[in-house]
Amino acid sequence: xxxxxxxxxxxxxxxxxxxxxxxxxxxxxxxxxxxxxxxxxxxxxxxxxxxxxxxxxxxxxxxxxxxxxxxxxxxxxxxxxxxxxxxxxxxxxxxxxxxxxxxxxxxx
Length: 108
Prior knowledge:
By secondary structure, the protein is an alpha+beta fold. Helices cover 16% and strands 44% of the residues.
């Protein structure tokens, strides 16, 4: 079965929480890795969601640890939407917790 991983950068303007994780995450840029596998028996290529990982890496060129959290993709979508709503409440015009890049990495 083929798998694929999509990676997106998400910028949160405000600290946020994700359901089921007892942590308040600071504002900043995070990588969201979504793993999917092909659905067999379909007349067209389709994928099924397997896992969503939220990744916080240290600033480029600075030492530090990367942190990984397995998150519910719907809970993450709610956190992104809440950040966006809060951002717009403050009357700013630029993007909020919006996807800033997307790249797909290999099949297994």
